[in-house]
Amino acid sequence: MPACPPYPASLPVDSPVAPGLAPSLVLVGAGPRGTGLVERLAANAPRLFAGGRLDLHLVDPYPPGGGRIWRSDQSPLLWMNSLAEDVTMYTDASVEREGPVVPGPSLAEWAAGIRDGAEHAPLDAETAAEARGLTGQSFASRRLQSAYLGWVYERSVAALPPGITVHEHRRRAVRVSGPRGGRQRVWLEGQAEPLVADLVVLALGHLTAEPDAEESTLAAFAATRGLTYLPPEFTADSDLRGLRPGEPVIVRGFGLAFVDLMVLLTEGRGGRYTTDAEGTVTYHPSGREPVLHVGSRRGVPYRSKIGYTWRGERPPLPRFLGPAEVEELRRRPGPLDFHRDLWPLIDKELGFAHYHRLFTAHPERTGVDWPEFEKRYADLDAGSAELRALVASCVPDPADRLDLTALDHPLDGVRFPGADSLQNGLRAHIEADLARRHDPRHSPDLAVFLGLLSVYGQLVRLGDTGPRWHGFFSYLASGPPGPRLRQLLALSRAGVVRFLGADTRVETDAVRGLFRARGASAPGPGVEAAALVEARLPAPTVARSRDPLLRGLYGESAVTPAGLLAVDPGDARILGRDGRPHPRRFALGPHTDARASGAFARPRSNAPAFRQNDALARAALTFLRGLSCRGVPSAGAGA
Fold first, then answer.
1. Which among 19, 30, 184, 440 has most CB atoms closer than 10 A?
2. Cα(75)–Cα(126) distance, rounded to whole angstroms?
């Protein structure tokens, strides 16, 4: 073992160690986040835990690697929404970390290894064929991503030092108990005796939740009238049998959950697409599809994934929202207000990324050189009339100017004369978005995407910043692949999808016994339907989670105003109601205020999840080594 580290005086010891027994770490959640933590434990253990013994318990009812969300037994029609070359589970030199970089392949590189025989994985014939045909510019199926995650898990376990023994438990953890200064007990569903742990790490992914007040009302209305109501949930888990062929279905939500629903109710029911010589996609229905009437607050789908790769100089980020600004925000008294405290910095940072690219890659479309514009830009406040005047004088074409408000709310102030013109208008919007996001002449859009990743990496250090940022980020940076939006256009032309417009409202009609929905973008009565689908994931609140372990922490842990579990920003220890970090409990994932944009990430992006995984793994290994040095009992020493 390495030399013993300083042991914090705040961590009490409770009895002598039992010789010959290994300490224990229980990791609840073995999906992508848990797998990433195993990879970081393996990377850091040779230096921090050399020669040590540890029982590593992985608790998850689903297979490790993919977990529930990325499990292999879902429709092969469901895709990832990132290019294969933009998906990795491995740290690189861009990641701020203390642990070592252990190189590993991206999804595209792994698939190339499968094709070339350099890598091996247990793939069925269909998934193996997909792997052989995958390129960096492909959108892989979730089944193939599940296989990649399973391979990463097996590789990470194999890389653990000989003294670390892995125990897999295909069960659900339902409760954790134990004193702050002593061993913890993790109770598993269907098992009489708990796992006894020196440390517990929660790496839970997206979870089911109890309905909120509105959802409960809608569900009760549906139950008493024989209607179909599908609450927020992972679409692959939804029972879609109540959505009948030819009948109208109201869909509230226009993000990735809607895209999955669209796929499962069209291609998943036997429909097919053809593409003509001009590239126009046509949908050929099977006759088993319902008619989807979709609306949302914005009234438009998420922006298309960008369809070209970066070339040339990257914007030097962060510039206006970096560690210094985050530290200043942390020092401000009282809670942060998103619009007052954060939005001006976000606006300035994304504008900097946009104009850096425009002035350096497309100087013929600007009126001054970049150094002059940059100096003047830096001196002006975001959103000010002076900044708008500067941009107008230096960027002649309005299409080259960044207007985040217009980008975020494209239907604000737009009113169509009727439902048919609304359909035409929305199709025109989607077509324009597809054309722009696949045209490298508009490469400042890709610079804004890089800016969004940079901003996310900074804001995650602040904890819970409210839902506004996450929704804005997802809309601009986490939209569907271009081919999915072309399919949406085809479905719209075929009459299988109808657009409701912005500010969609859903009501119940007690007299007619139906749901009713209408948007604000066109006049008319809207649509009536016997089925309503909430096309989104449930909010990751601790209080309403259906996960009993997480919900059980509500009374003893700090929870943010948005309902997230509060954790220490340094190493993800769970904070108590008194604000003190729990010495033996950690948590990462969407239910915490340290939630990152994903458990896997783009290479060379300093991904927040990778930074967090490394910090947590090092804190855990250092703690466990400290227990051994101080003679603290291991979990194997008894309850």
1. 30
2. 12
Q: Is the pTM of this model over 0.90?
A: yes
Distance, CA of 504 to CA of 521 (rounded, Å): 9
CB 274 within 8 A of CB 282: yes
Q: What pLDDT digit, counting tens, does each position of 139-151 carry? A: 999 999 999 999 9
Bridge partners, residue 137, by sequence: none
At residue 297, the 3 state secondary structure works out as: coil
Give strand pairing partners of 201. 27, 586
Helical segments of 494-631, H only: 548-552, 608-630
- Spatial CA neighbour of 34 closest among 58, 56, 68, 54: 58
548 cis-preceded (ω within 30 degrees of 0): no
Burial readout 142-173 (b: 16 or more C-beta within 10 A, e: otherwise): bbbbbbbbbbbbebbbebbeeebebeebeebb
What pLDDT shows up at residue 627? 81
- For residue 604, the model assigns a pLDDT of 92
**To the nearest 10°, the Cα dihedral for 232, 235, 237, 240?**
90
Q: Are 261 and 251 in contact (CB under 8 A)?
A: yes
Pairing of strands 531-534, 573-575: unpaired
The upper half-sphere exposure of residue 311, i.e. CA atoms within 13 Å in the direction of its Cβ, equals: 10
Share of the chain above pLDDT 70, in %: 95
* Percent of the chain that is helix, strand, coil (3-state, to 5): 40, 15, 45
Q: How do residues 374-385 score in pLDDT, each as one tens digit?
A: 999 999 999 999
pLDDT digit string, tens, across residues 432-479: 999 999 999 999 999 999 999 999 999 999 999 988 999 999 999 999
Looking up tokens 């783009």 gives 602
Half-sphere exposure of residue 244, counting CA atoms within 13 Å on the CB side?
6
pLDDT at 417 over 50: yes
What would the pLDDT profile of 578-618 be if each residue is shown by its tens digit? 999 999 999 999 999 998 878 899 999 999 999 999 999 99
Under DSSP, is residue 586 helix (H, G, I), strand (E, B) or coil? strand
Contact at 8 Å (CB) between 505 and 218? no
CB-based contacts of 431, cutoff 8 Å, min separation 6 = 489
